[in-house]
C-alpha cells in the first residue's frame, strides 16, 4: 500500500526513507524529495531546479529530471500532466484529484472517494494509473 503525503510529512530522515525504497540518498536526491514534501505546489522540473540551484550550485536540470524519473519508478512520486506540454510532480501518491487554475496556473489537491467510482466495466482491465483533473478558476482568481 502506498503511503500518502501526510505519512511522508512525518519523515524524520529522508535519507533513510529513500534507502527503504532502494534509492541511494545523494544530497541532490534528498533535497529534491524534501522540496516535494515541503512544498505542495506540484512543481515542474524548472521550478525545482530554480529553487534548489540557489542552495546547490552544481545542480543541473538533467539531475532533477533523472531524479524525478527514479522517484516515479520507485512509486514515491507521481507525474501530473494536466497540460500536454507541462509535467508536474507530486509526492502524494495516494488516489486524489487535481484542479488547475487557468488564470494563475496553481494546481490544488482535492480528496476523492474511490468507492463512489462505478468501476464495473473496469474490472475487465488492468489499471496502471488513475487521474482526475479539473480546470477552471480558483477561488482567489474569481
Descriptive account of the structure:
The protein is an alpha+beta fold. The protein has one domain: Winged helix-like DNA-binding domain superfamily/Winged helix DNA-binding domain (Arc Repressor Mutant, subunit A). It contains five helices and five strands, in the order αααααβββββ. The protein has helices at 5-8, 14-20, 27-38, 45-52, 61-73, and strands at residues 78-83, 86-90, 96-101, 107-111, 133-136. It has a three-stranded mixed beta sheet with strand order 4-3-5, with no helix packed on it. Strands 1-2 form a two-stranded antiparallel sheet. A hairpin with a 2-residue loop joins β1 (78-83) and β2 (86-90). α4 (45-52) packs across α5 (61-73). Mean pLDDT is 88; it is low at 1-8.
CATH class: Mainly Alpha
Q: Any idea what the shape is?
A: globular
CATH superfamily heading: Winged helix-like DNA-binding domain superfamily/Winged helix DNA-binding domain
Question: What is the straight-line distance between the termini?
Answer: 38 Å
- Which strand order do you get reading across the main beta sheet? 4-3-5
Counting helices, strands and paired strands, the structural category is: alpha+beta
What's the helical proportion of residues? 25-40%
Strand content: 15-25%
The mean pLDDT is 88
Number of strands: 5
What is the fold's blueprint, element by element?
Elements: H1 5-8, H2 14-20, H3 27-38, H4 45-52, H5 61-73, E1 78-83, E2 86-90, E3 96-101, E4 107-111, E5 133-136
Parallel strand pairs: 3-5
Antiparallel strand pairs: 1-2, 3-4
Helix pairs in contact: 3-5, 4-5
Amino acid at each position: 500500500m502506498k503511503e500518502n503525503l501526510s505519512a511522508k510529512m512525518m519523515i524524520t530522515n529522508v535519507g533513510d526513507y529513500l534507502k527503504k525504497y532502494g534509492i541511494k540518498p545523494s544530497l541532490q536526491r534528498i533535497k529534491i524529495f524534501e522540496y516535494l514534501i515541503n512544498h505542495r505546489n506540484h512543481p515542474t522540473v524548472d521550478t525545482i531546479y530554480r529553487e534548489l540551484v540557489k542552495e546547490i550550485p552544481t545542480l543541473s536540470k538533467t539531475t532533477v529530471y533523472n531524479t524525478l524519473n527514479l522517484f516515479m519508478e520507485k512509486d514515491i512520486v507521481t507525474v501530473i500532466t494536466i497540460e500536454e506540454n507541462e509535467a508536474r510532480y507530486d509526492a502524494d501518491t495516494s488516489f486524489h484529484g487535481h484542479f488547475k487554475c487557468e488564470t494563475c496556473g496553481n494546481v490544488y489537491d482535492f480528496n476523492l472517494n474511490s468507492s463512489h467510482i462505478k468501476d464495473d466495466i473496469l474490472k475487465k482491465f488492468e489499471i496502471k494509473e488513475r487521474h482526475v483533473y479539473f480546470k477552471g478558476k480558483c477561488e482567489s482568481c474569481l
